[in-house]
Fold this sequence. Notes:
This protein has 460 residues and is an alpha/beta fold. Helices cover 34% and strands 20% of the residues.
Amino acid sequence: MNVYDSGRMAxxxxxxxxxxxxxxxxxxxxxxxxxxxxEKASEKIYSExxxxxxxxxxxxxxxxxxxxxxxxxxxxxxxxxxxRRQPAVDMIFGPQSYHRLPDLLAQVMRQGGQVMDTDxxxxxxFGALPVGSASRGVSAFLSIxxxxxxxxxxxxxxxxxxxEFSRPVDQVVSEARxxxxxxxxxxxxxxxxxxxxxxxxxxxxxxxxxxGLAALLRRLAAIEGLERLRYTTSHPRDMDGDLIAAHEHVxxxxxxxxxxxxxxxxxxxxxxxxxxxxxxxxxxxxxxxKARPDIALSSDFxxxxxxxxxxxxxxxxxxxxxxxxxxxxxxxxxxxxxxxGAALDDQVPEAEKTARLAALQDVLSQQQHAFNAGFIGCxxxxxxxxEGRHAGQMVGRSPYLQAVHVxxxxxxxxxxxxxxxxxxxxxxxxxxLAVKExxxxxxxxxxxxxxxxxxxxxxx
Length: 460
């Protein structure tokens, strides 16, 4: 979602004469778009601000200026602290306020000093953004839902992104069409709790009530030129029968689902306020696989939540073994200020968290390796995105989000082509364009660890 938001910030600033640059060194404006999910991500911001401050000082010595802004969830949660720790920051604004960037920038340029906007505005920020957005490649993100009403005890999202809000169907479809017209062939729908989507129906459908994610997916699948659809991040509680059926009946919806579970222990799931049990989750997985046998699953796991015992951790390992994941993101529990989990007793020692995370990631890595290795010798459809790092190489994505490299020219970009997988690389698959079609039928019932937590955008 931060990648999407960063792109929309650039869209908002474009009419003011700003354009994106690759490096912040000599930019006229640097925006750090931040995530507050984990403590490590939050602390990285202050380190990065120290580096950017030096660039600003060098420009000042040359009689030039640089505006430094901090956006996103850390800005929302720690705005005053950021200003205190780093006076070089000119602007602070939360994830619901970036449509106001032109006004905030005007205040800085006109009045000087520091400007902060971390309110939750009454108006719809999406409605205030420019119509459509510039294409940034063959694949694009599209935010359809923000905020969360689940209040998991470890999560800061309800406090930094606010209550659940869903964009109207017409607005989403209009942006999707603009992306496709700009060359996008794959769209990933985004939301903090995306399958809780409940958007106002399109014009002429008012009597049908709010539309869920399944109805929206069917509507988007009808857009000519849109080859693939994905969505993330889901909550098990909102995975209803209509959405499961969409995985069976909407061919544009890729056979890959990110379905976070966080823990395999019912005791810990209850403490996390996840509102489901391990059995509920496994039953749901069975229903999804019955509807779409070739689907691959990924998930999120937190180890070391307050009160987690060795027995609780073993329950998580058992669930992982029962599900068998294609990919997963796993983290040590990080207390976030203001969340109920931060106030719980019986915090797990850091050394124990580290040991459990290593054991968890070892199992997940084995599953991911086995999943990827299962494609060797098979043919899969790959959506090619761009040239690879080596001359004459193209890279694309499989239906399961794996990076796939082949020998080919730039004319492949934007095309879906069949590829025979020949080998497994550390972080990708390698193959060749298929001469004769062969089908790969996998009934997948292994994970990539890590996630981008913040991004810096240089603008000039």
